[in-house]
Amino acid sequence: MAKTEIRQTSFISGALSPDLLGRGDLVAYAQGAGVLENVFVQPTGGVYRRPGTVFVDGLSGDGRMAAFEQSVDNSFLIIFRDLEIDIYKDDALITTLAAPWTLSQLSHINWVQDASQLLVLHPDVKPQRIYINNLGVWVISNWVFSTSGAGAVWQPYHKFADDDVSLTAGAVSGSGIALSASADVFAGSHVGTRFQIDGKEVEIASVISPTSATINIIETLGGTSATTNWKEQAFSDVRGWPVSACFHQDRLVIGGSRDLSNRLWLSKIGAKFNFDAGTGLDDEAIYFTMLSDQANQVRAVFSGRHLQVFTSGAEWMVTGEPLTPGNIQVNRQTRIGSPTDRGLKPVDVDGATLFVSRTLNDLREFLFTDIEQAYQAGDLAMLARHHMAGPRDMDFDNRGRRLLLVMDDGSLAALTLYRAEKVTAWAKQTTLGNFRSLAVVGDGVYLLVERGGTYFVERLDDASFTDCSILQTSVTPKTTWDGLDHLEGDTVKLVADGVVVSEQVVTAGTVELVNPANSLAAGLAYSHIIEPLPPALASNNTSSATGRTRPIAMTFRLAETPALVLDTGRGLVNVPFRRFGIDALDQPQAPFSGDKKVRAFGWNGGAVKALWRIEQDIPLPFTLLAVSTEISLN
Questions:
Q1: Radius of gyration over alpha carbons of the chain, in Å?
Q2: For a tag site, which of 35, 234, 240, 370 has the least CB within 10 Å?
Q3: Are 547 and 587 within 8 A, CB to CB?
Q4: Angle CA(588)–CA(520)–CA(463) in degrees, nearest 5?
Q5: Are the CB atoms for 343 and 299 separated by under 8 Å?
Q6: How far apart are CA 266 and CA 264, in angstroms?
Q7: Torsion, Cα of 532, 447, 127, 264 (10° steps)
Q8: Where are the domains of the chain?
Q9: Cα 94 from Cα 14, distance rounded (Å)
Q10: Is 341 left (phi over 0), alpha (psi -120 to 50) or beta?
């Protein structure tokens, strides 16, 4: 038998896929883990129990979250729900507005913010603006494109019919004028839409048949002869509405619509709702179609180093310094593709654009490389594919350099990213229920959670170590604490004046303490789990997780940790921390920082069995910095 020591000084590779249990030769193997659940990985390498969530509000149903930030100190949480939106500030509901999106449409909405408004899009719903008016009142209204002095609307136009289809007007001016088509053109929902005939605008007043309508003439026509030079407004109830938008080089960029899915429109410079192409001057609007050898349904447009376009089949770079009708260039960069069954906004992280692949199995990093002068799309989930359980929502929390992804299975994946130090660390987050949506608003991370058919708005809070919790204080010590109506009938963990006390069932919205306290934290339990990968043992110049091992001792380097529950092969044991003369039995457990050595016994004959496991639901802080394991080899 030989003795050896395994030292793990960081967890910067995160929880690796079980598919890698035979890849002890990977650098990531030595810095990874088998299970990381309900912990966050620090950019410096340690792992700590994730913050719990505090209860903000209850909702009547499911929804989707977005952030609206007027300024650094003035941020709002917007929750899209079935035909409504709720707006919160500082954890308080300030208003509810009627909205046009049904619950089934929320997975496909997209939005972009400029300084004063949130522009919201869905391919089947007229685009909306959400903003605060001059009276300080929240308003939701339709987009309104700019108009000329003559009443023409400067919006995108397109001819949806064949090139040889002609229109004939009965007069050059007036209202209720007959308009006929040489083929089927008109639908009942065309009423109120605009057409351009030889560059002059008319409005459909009524539809008589697919080839016959009446119009109100906005701009005097050039004649009454049949003409093939006509277009209709690109966005309408007939043709569908925009899919995505962003702002780039002082232009509003619209990416795709329901019926023109592979087309881009860029507004006039400095006039975000003016899409008049004019005569092609440098500052005028730009239209073009993304053509290639595959389908290119635009799913998102993003302003990065260049204008980036994410389609169902590929990723594109739009260049031009500045972008003008004369110098714009479109180049396909990669062929990954984005999902078509849901809308997932790409996220910027340190100059790279993160997006989910069409298969929902990859998280790609769209990054420009100076050497190749092109974009690459590396897969950040390559070593942790099991975490990609169908992303449905994502946002980046800059405070912890952490990308958060809500999954279809109700879990939440946390990916700590720090490219300069090669940190790509995945960890799974769970709760008593299902995560449904999230948004990072200012310095806060808000979550929409479904628990037993009830929906809650919750916020991650560093002072909480339970979920859906309340944090209360009282000047006068008391035993009866209320405010837990939202957890009626649930068993909750309790921390009174920093001491963990017996859990209780919430009755009539209250809990009753044995001893009076000045503060109480109460909420739903969750367990954090840390389990290493099986040891990679060297043999004949190779590395594999094989052979019989006997763990002798483990040394855990902890920081500000008052409790450690550990399994070294004989079940979970609460490792004692109390030190004579320092910790009193009736006082909060003093946090421990330093090395804690634990002896182990027995042989480990399983090639894929971890040597130890930490699993605890104690609602107190926990931080693990490093682990050293002494083992005997047979």
A1: 30
A2: 370
A3: no
A4: 75
A5: yes
A6: 7
A7: -20
A8: 2-51+537-633, 157-233, 467-524
A9: 39
A10: alpha
Nearest CA among 476, 473, 441, 477 for reference residue 459: 441
Check the CA dihedral 231-233-236-239 and report its sign. Answer: positive
**DSSP H or E stretch at residue 85:** strand 84-89
Contact call for residues 522 and 493 (beta carbons, < 8 A)? yes
The per-residue pLDDT for range 108-164, each reduced to its tens digit, is: 999 999 888 999 999 999 999 999 999 999 999 999 999 998 899 999 999 999 999
Q: How far apart are CA 180 and CA 234, in angstroms?
A: 20
At 557, the amino acid letter reads R
Asked whether the beta carbons of 62 and 455 are under 8 A apart, the reply is: yes
Q: Which two tokens stand for residue 182?
A: 């040489």
Tell me if 66 sits within 8 A of 111, measured CB to CB. Answer: yes
Q: What are the pLDDT digits (tens) for 290-325? A: 887 777 899 999 999 999 999 999 999 999 989 999
pLDDT one-digit tens code per residue, 34-58: 999 999 999 999 999 999 999 999 9
Alpha-carbon distance of 253 to 242, in angstroms, equals 10
Question: Which are the contacts of 32, defined by CB distance < 8 A and separation ≥ 6?
Answer: 11, 13, 14, 15, 16, 20, 383, 533
Contact of 142 with 126, CB cutoff 8 Å = yes
* Backbone φ, ψ for residue 124 (5° rounding): -110, 5
* Ramachandran region, residue 50 (left: φ > 0; alpha: ψ -120 to 50; beta: rest): beta
Residue whose token pair is 């639908």: 187
Instruction: Give the phi and the psi of residue 126 in degrees, each rounded to 5.
Output: -55, 130
β-bridge mates for residue 457, sequence order: 57, 448
Rounded Cα distance between 583 and 590, Å, is 7
Beta-carbon count within 10 A of 492 CB: 22
The amino acid at 473? T
Quick check: pTM over 0.90? yes
Q: How far apart are CA 553 and CA 548, in angstroms?
A: 16
Cβ atoms of 412 and 435 within 8 Å: the answer is yes
467, containing H or E segment: strand 467-481
Cα distance between the two ends of the chain = 5
Amino acid at 607: A
- State whether residue 618 is helix, strand or coil: coil
Q: Tokens 């990093």 map to which residue?
A: 365
The amino acid sitting at 299 is R
Euclidean distance between CA atoms 31 and 13, whole angstroms = 5
In 3-state terms, the chain is what percent helix, strand and coil (to 5)?
Answer: 5, 55, 45
| H helix intervals, 100-215 | none
Q: Are the beta carbons of 79 and 214 closer than 8 angstroms?
A: no
How many CB atoms lie under 10 A from the CB of residue 304? 18
**114-123 CB contacts, 8 Å cutoff, 24+ apart:** 114/247, 114/272, 115/70, 116/70, 118/66, 118/68, 118/78, 119/143, 119/245, 121/241, 121/242, 121/243, 121/244, 121/245, 122/241, 123/240, 123/241, 123/242, 123/243, 123/257, 123/258
Helix, strand, or coil here: 151? coil
Which amino acid would we find at residue 296?
N
Provide the token pair at 359.
């298969």
Tell me which residue of 499, 432, 440, 435 sits closest to 466, measured CA to CA: 432
* Separation between Cα atoms, residue 589 and residue 499, nearest integer Å: 7
336-348 confidence digits (pLDDT tens): 999 999 999 999 9
Regarding beta strands 32-33 and 14-15, do their DSSP bridges make them parallel or antiparallel, or are they unpaired? parallel
Strands 363-369 and 298-303: unpaired
